Amino acid sequence: xxxxxxxxxxxxxxxxxxxxxxxxxxxxxxxxxxxxxxxxxxxxxxxxxxxxxxxxxxxxxxxxxxxxxxxxxxxxxxxxxxxxxxxxxxxxxxxxxxxxxxxxxxxxxxxxxxxxxxxxxxxxxxxxxxxxxxxxxxxxxxxxxxxxxxxxxxxxxxxxxxxxxxxxxxxxxxxxxxxxxxxxxxxxxxxxxxxxxxxxxxxxxxxxxxxxxxxxxxxxxxxxxxxxxxxxxxxxxxxxxxxxxxxxxxxxxxxxxxxxxxxxxxxxxxxxxxxxxxxxxxxxxxxxxxxxxxxxxxxxxxxxxxxxxxxxxxxxxxxxxxxxxxxxxxxxxxxxxxxxxxxxx
Length: 345
Ligand code: 1CP
Fold this sequence. Notes:
By secondary structure, this protein is an alpha/beta fold. Helices cover 46% and strands 12% of the residues. The protein has helices spanning 6-11, 32-40, 43-47, 50-64, 79-82, 103-107, 119-131, 145-154, 162-170, 172-195, 213-231, 248-251, 267-274, 293-307, 327-340; strands at residues 68-70, 86-89, 93-96, 137-143, 200-205, 237-241, 258-260, 279-284, 313-317. The chain starts with 5 loop residues before the first helix and ends in a 5-residue tail after the last helix. Coproporphyrinogen I is lined by residues 25-29, 38, 43, 70, 72-76, 88, 93-94, 141, 157, 204, 206, 319-320.
């Protein structure tokens, strides 16, 4: 089975000749090919055009020669069939014109979604699988219930998540019902992506780090686990909970296969907290890619020396590629990680 993607072996905690590498947000505005596509179509139109999504990701995977292709899509369009009016404004990021703020909002939100409403995501998975070489994994993805709830409640991106936390604390039952609906909608999406050929899936909890561990345990973990339970046995799941290393022990109680680690704690410490049961993915600070090739190699080596020989280690950034990143710096990182394979252990 030489064609089996390295990422899948790592996710099963099997030894690999070198750690697999891919980068969160590896396609996007830092790539000229992507900007050329976006000159022609809006972001939402792009997300709804599987052929273009597959091409954008194939271009990125080709330029970087990474071991996995995450599908080109976004975490937020799933809010549309749930009843939210989503738009992406140039420069300002996502906007939801009818945010979720009170009990009466639950009645206008769909109880569940029909797979047909997001068939374009499944077609993107199938098309991406068709154009990406077999030895590279195709990763499906979705937002975690908390991170989706934060956009739905705030009406867009946020720094403090004040409305989200207020709703969560002052109306815990309403919060719980809303989180369950989000978890169930995400399950429909991820199960459909797996059925369409995704080798593994990643759940992005980009903003859960805004919470303290106790609150995460009470208001978030049960809903994340509800989602993970639906996915059990279908495909390996990577749960990426960013922003707060104090949440890692909480994440390590969930039934994911791998945990994503941001850059806010050392990979050595992260591996210690997580223990031997999970694959571990991360954790290079994305701003390192703004420096120079020598620094990039040195920082990559630091992580590889600490975790590169651990079964189940997957090299990645600690969060997405920044749009100011020179493409050749990302290419250099991938080269450096691949050369680690050849160095004697
Ligand atoms: O062209 C443009 O202006 C759109 C920019 C863009 C892109 C390229 C958005 C809007 N989404 C994406 C693609 C995307 N988003 C991918 C595809 C794979 C890839 O780029 O390689 C993925 C995996 C995501 C996931 C995503 N979207 C997350 C989780 C990851 C993370 O960075 O934490 C989040 C939080 C989003 C929301 C979102 N969508 C777009 C933007 C600008 C944002 C962030 C807004 C904010 O800061 O709140």
